Each structure stands twice: as C-alpha cells, then as structure tokens.
Give the backbone structure.
Amino acid sequence: MPVISIDTFFACSLMVLLTLSAMAASSKLLYPYINNAVDVNSVERFREASKYMLLSKGSPADWGQRDSTILERFGLARAGSDAAYELDIDKVSRLNDENSYAVPYAQIFEALKMSDVSFRLEVKPLFEVSINLTSTFNAVNETIYQFEISTQRHGAQVPASLKCYAVTSNYFNVGFVGSASGQAYVNVTLPNNIGGPALLAVLAKANSNTNVVSFNAYGFAHNSAQPKQKGTFLKLGPLNYTLTASTKYPNINLSEAYALAFNYNSTLTKTTGNDTFSTYNIPRILDSSPTLLVVTGENSTAFFAEWTAYPQIPVEVGANFANPTTIALTNVFAYPYIITIGSAFYECTVWIGGPRG
Amino acid sequence: MRRENAGQIRVLEAFFAVLVVFSAFTVTTSFTVSPNNAKREDLASIGLQALLKLDSDGSLGNYVSGGNWSLLRDVLDEVLPIGVCFNLTVYDDQMQQVNNAIVANGGLNNQEIAFVEYACASRNPVFNCYTIHMWLAVAS
C-alpha cells in the first residue's frame, strides 16, 4: 500500500472524528436551548412551579379562611404548619366551584404571577368508594335495602373499614362494617312510616393505614320519588369551620344538619339564618377523616337531603388540557403529589402547560 | 502494489470511515442531556414523599419494627401513583437487611430506575434506626 493512501486514510478519519466530536460537544451545550418536544428547562421550571403551589402559603397567609380577602399570591399550604405538603382545608375547599366562596380560576391565575403558564389542579381521595343498590326487600313495617360497597383504586380492590350513615326525614342511623376484600354488602333498614328520599353516606379507611381515607354518598327513593341531583336545592359552602347553606328556591325549610366523620358524628346547631341561607358551626374533629356535612329539609312538595364534604373534594380547577388544540400548542406536564389535609392523605395532581417552543 | 488492487483499498477505507462515523454517533448519544433524568427525579421525589408522609405519624417505623411487610407493601401501593413499581429494602443500623419478605409490587424491568434512601426510626417501645432503600420505576 502506498504511503500516500495510508496518510489519506488517517487524515480523513481524523477529520471525521474531529467533526463528530465538535457536533457532540455542540449538541451537549446547545441541547437545553434547542426547541424540542421535551424542553428540559420547562420540565424543571414547571416542576418547581407545581411545588410552589403546594408548599407556599400564599398571601395573605390565611386567604382560605377569610372570604372577603383579596388573593394576592396563590399557595395552598396551611399557615403555621411545619410539615411539607400539608394543605389548608379552606384553601382547598375554595377551589371547588360548588363552594359559596369559591375563588375563580382567573383570580388564581393572576395570583400565581406566571403569565406564560396555565395549570390544572386536582385533589381527590387515594381510592374510590362506589355504592350500588343491589336489592330491596319489602316487609310489613320496614323496607330493607341491600347495598354493595366496593373500595377500589383504579380497579384494584382496597381492603378498608366502612362507616355507614343512613339519613332520611327524622331518621338517622349508623352502621360499621369491615371489608377485608375491598367489597362489602350493607343492609339498611328503614321504617315504612317515614318518607324519603334517603341518603346513605359511607366513609372508608384503608386497613393498611388509617390516614388513607375516602368517602361517597348515595341517594335512593324510600316511599318517595327518586332523589334529585346533588345541589338541586341547596348550595353548601363550608369555610373556616362554618357551614353556609344557601337555598336555591323560595319556600325551602331546612330541618336537620349533620357532621359525619369516621369515628364521630354530631347534629349541627343553626347559628344564624333567614329565608335564603343558614349557617352552622362545624365541630373540629380530631380524626383523620373528612367530614361529610348533610343538610335535610323540605321544599313545597318533598323532603331532600343535600351533602358535601369538608374539605370540599374531589375538586378539579384550572385550564382544560384535554382539548386537542390546547395540547397541540402547549407542553403539558403532570406532577403527582401525596398531600395531607388534617391528618388524612389525599392525591394531588398538578398539570402545568406552557407555550410550545 | 498492483493497480488492480487499488479498488480493494478504497473499499477498506470506506468501511473504516463508516465504522468511525457510527462509533462517533454512538458516543454522541451518550453525551446528550436526556429528559429521562427529569423523569427519574420525579419518581424519586414521589417515592420520598410517600415515605415522608408515612413517617409523619410514625406509621413507617411501626410497620418496620412490627415486621408488617405486607401492610407496608399495601400502603405504598395505595399512596404511590398508579403505574409506579417499587422495590424496598430495610436495613438496620449495622446495614443488615431487616425485611424477610419482599416488599415490592412488581418487577423493575424498566431501564429508568430511581433510587431513594430514607432514614427512619421506630418510636415505641424501643428506639431503633433503620435505613430504607427504595427503587422505583414506571411500569412498562
């Protein structure tokens, strides 16, 4: 082989190596600045923004408790708490548009002070409780309703203990049942001399940890027509351990109000009220359980039982990233967190999206 | 060298050049910043949060000191996001493995595995320190 060929070969190889090394170095240096489907800087920035929402108390720090206050900076952490990801029960409740004192997304967006990002925030229990009426047995003096209650997390059964409350006109009853397999059958017996509709409220605590809790409620007919949709008669707004029940129609009379937790229940006393709203004090229950608030009453024709949870979850607030146009124009990232409200664990997911490069 | 062998040398040159180019590409890909680092950080963060939350009321120490490995597996399965696999090992202060049962919800056959190290203590009746090593991955 002539010497010149060997020289040419090594020279070419060296040039190729040098060129590719330069490309490698350039790509390493420039990668974060190149518009790409996944922008590393955006991922980092959005992650920090999502953490900020959950770790910051916002301004003023007690904006959750005071309905008249103007939200200056958004943050959901509980004021005075040293624990990370411990959220304020009222700040979370005010994200729910069912709450009488709900903060609109536009106001939250402004208070976040990040004009180039949109977000969606969801807080919900770590597992779901589903209630199904499976059968009804009519006797002379009473009617027995059999319910199938299952506790599941994305289809996987969660063994849990269940506390069941049956509420109807002038009737209140409590039952407890264990569900080792994540599925249980509960019988509710109601006297035939009382009218409905009735409400079955269920609170569940996972057997693996008593701070992992969930709940649900199911309205059913009993000597009555089928119950109306939740929120038909009243708007319930729990805030700062005070429940405000605002009527949606005239001629509604409220009768009883209950606070139901896993290990404790109480009848609420009306503190103020007129034709359009009533307020009740909510007891501060030292139980790692949400409190279900049930208000019963009658409109001109029938009995009703409205309910809500305190904290008022599940809640979903913010931009709709499911829209295909939005998805095409933005980089959206989801950040899951485990948060506590009171001492109960919940799941919080923050979706943050910014303009695509 | 005879003139008719010159073509063979050109083929060899081209072959080596291609080899060099592909080697350079292979090396280049390992240099670039991968977004998977961010995924690993997210996984580690959620794993650490889960352990912190369980430790906040002493539950984690109780599971470990009581040897309730199935309960520990169940509660981690409930608090970690769906689709996250974990494998956890508990060591005592001598770094001897404590858990005599597997605390995991599936195989970590994903290439992107995050690692979390956490120190916890049992509160009652004896104060013991434990080191927890948890590996996490997104289920494939």
